[in-house]
Amino acid sequence: MEASLKHGVVGFWRIVFQGISATAPAAIVSSITAASGYADGSLPLSYLIAYIAVLFTLVAIYEFSKKVSHAGGYYGYVSRAAGPFTGIFTGLLLLGYQIADLAFLPLYFVILVEYSLSFFTGMSLPTYAWILIAIVSIVAWSIPPFLGIKPSLNYSIIFGAGEVAALSILSIAIIIHTGSSNTLSVFTPAYSPTGINGVLLGGIFAMTSFLGYGSVVSLGEEAQKPKETIKKALLTNVLISGTFFILFSYAYTVGWGPSSNMSSFTNLLIPGTVETKRLLGLIPALVITFFGLESFFNSSLSFTNSAVRYMYGFARDDHVIPKKIAAVHPESGVPRLALLTVVILYTLLSIIVGLAAGLFEGFVLLATAATIFSLVVHIITNSTVWRVYKPQERKILIHFVLPAVASALFLFIIYSSVYPFSIPLSYAPLSVLAWAIISVALVIYARARKKEQYTKAGLYSSVE
């Protein structure tokens, strides 16, 4: 009998922190500028809007998780709802997302190491030192997933909770330090130079801070009572992350001064570190820097766990990816060949893009591609959720209206990410399009050459 993932070994809080860690909460020390560039001093309102919007987008995944438990996550969901063609196509896009996301994390990690080193010491890295740092980092955050899902998630609980707790304490300290300058007016469009339009655009980019919360669905076959645990973990990790993001954005906006020159805040690569040092001193600044860097380690570990399980769930069906990649180590319960495949693919992509485009441009290209991949997968998921329910079970609001609203938001984010077209940023959507075309060709090949495997795509799941 073939070894499979270990069933029922992962409890509720481990799954919650799989999702929280994937979003890299402490990375907000730098990623916050994507939203502040539009919202300025109304940044907290943008994060509040993003929080509400993400709760809308959660609906389809939450509803799917009641019916399907599958290591392939969205691949298993869509295959069950819409059939093998759409399911396999979604699975291939999902793998594109995972590889692109994992590939940009080492680049951004090195960028933050470089800027933090310069900020605290004035030193700079040798030109190609980033390659060594990236490779060492990749090896380091691949070790826990190699050992097993429980050691990985134990790390995620400890350091994920540490990130949220430490940065929440620092945020509260800044709020106290700000004193009478605290104001709820930052939750209005008053400080946005373009009014509500700037707030909404800021909200769209603030939504990207939540990307990764859905990674918990990849643990569907290893979770205890998956149909209960996964849906609760989805909601809990979004509630915790959203509350944290709003607290941080409020504290660091009022601490900087919402009516002052917020553009200077936006122009900093590590504004959270700079503001913490200015208001609270060197030690708190070193703490926030440590957790900001560690957040990339934890996020990469979480994404590796989910990518390996997506690869495993996909390869197990033996239609596009060889089944041998789904081999599971009998003791650790880890699909180690899938892990090796994922690590090799994203390491090569990261280094090639970094060398070709440069560290920052490479990061932006891969991050944009990963975002587009993710949103397209979510749009397909939103569009098919109703089909996994019997006609008498379907609800207009839950299975049609809210998923449609979420998809409309995602389409606008995609549009905002690619228009106006510019080189080299346009290479990101073009790369996604190219992979989508290749994916269609692979699905057609599977349908023609592996008919039996094709018809059974995504059916290894627990369905009510």
Would you give an account of this structure?
- Helix 6 packs antiparallel against helix 17.
- The protein is 72% helix and 1% strand.
- It is mainly alpha-helical and 464 residues long.
- It has a single domain, classed as Amino acid/polyamine transporter I, CATH 1.20.1740.
- A two-stranded antiparallel sheet has the order 1-2.
What would the keywords be for this entry?
Amino acid/polyamine transporter I, two-stranded antiparallel sheet
Summarize the model shown.
With 464 residues, this protein is mainly alpha-helical. It has a single domain (12-463), classed as Amino acid/polyamine transporter I, CATH 1.20.1740.
Sequence-ordered SSE layout with sheet pairings:
Elements: H1 12-22, H2 28-31, H3 33-39, H4 43-65, E1 68-69, H5 74-82, H6 84-121, H7 129-147, H8 149-178, H9 196-207, H10 226-256, H11 262-266, H12 271-280, H13 282-315, H14 336-357, H15 359-384, H16 396-418, H17 427-449, H18 451-455, E2 462-463
Antiparallel strand pairs: 1-2
Helix pairs in contact: 1-8, 1-10, 1-13, 3-4, 3-9, 4-9, 4-10, 4-16, 5-6, 5-15, 6-7, 6-13, 6-14, 6-15, 6-17, 7-8, 7-13, 7-14, 8-10, 8-13, 12-13, 13-14, 14-15, 15-16, 15-17
